[in-house]
Amino acid sequence: MTTKKYTKSLRSFRVYHRFIGITVALILFISAVTGLLLAWKKNIDAIQPPTKRGQLVPLKEWKSLGELSLIAQQTLDEQQPELKGNFIEKIDIRPKKGVAKMQFSEGFWEVQLDGSTGEVLSVAKRHSDWIEDLHDGSIISENFKLLSMNILGIGTILLIITGFWLWYGVKYIRKLKARRSRTKRG
User: How far apart are CA 4 and CA 177, in angstroms?
Assistant: First the structure.
């Protein structure tokens, strides 16, 4: 390949690199900002409610999941009537803290209960959940999540390849030109 062909190749790679960079930049920016927030979620109460402590008793002395679920459901219905009928999506049991966290499907709400007494320890919004959905794109849809994460992954790989060629290609062309000028002189 001649230096002209390498130079032309570098120009095309510069265009590809710029286009890919612009495409990936927005997704990468959102992913980076939300990733930072998620890294701090256990340290910032506004992002994720701190896990409260209930009575430390053996699990066999806890109320049943059915009873705890009913208490959590009634509590959320009373405190957030517009979410009445919101169902529990996830239950997080923490025996070492004596607490059961009931996470609801809509609005990112959580009710924390003492596992043995059913006492309500906390009712709060889990901002970390919607931040995580934004982070991976699932806030729009599962298909968008798959598409955006593929664009991010493949785009980053292409940026590395084109960036390497833009860096190395210039050095290589300089070597070719230097070799050619030595050959002409000698």
Answer: 11
∠30-145-101 over CA atoms, to 5°?
85
The CATH code for residues 49-125 is 3.10.450
Q: Encode pLDDT of 17-61 as tens digits.
A: 888 888 889 889 999 999 999 999 999 999 999 999 999 999 999
Q: Are the C-beta atoms of residues 110 and 102 closer than 8 Å to each other?
A: yes
Q: In degrees to the nearest 10, what's the CA dihedral of 31, 33, 34, 39? A: 110
Distance from C-alpha of 152 to C-alpha of 34, rounded to nearest angstrom: 15
How many Å apart are CA 126 and CA 47, to the nearest integer? 6
Q: Which residue has the higher pLDDT, 55 or 169?
A: 55
Q: Where are the alpha helices (DSSP H) in the chain?
A: 3-39, 65-79, 127-136, 142-185
Please give the C-alpha separations between residue 98 and each of 102, 111, 117, 157, in angstroms, as whole numbers.
Answer: 13, 14, 10, 46
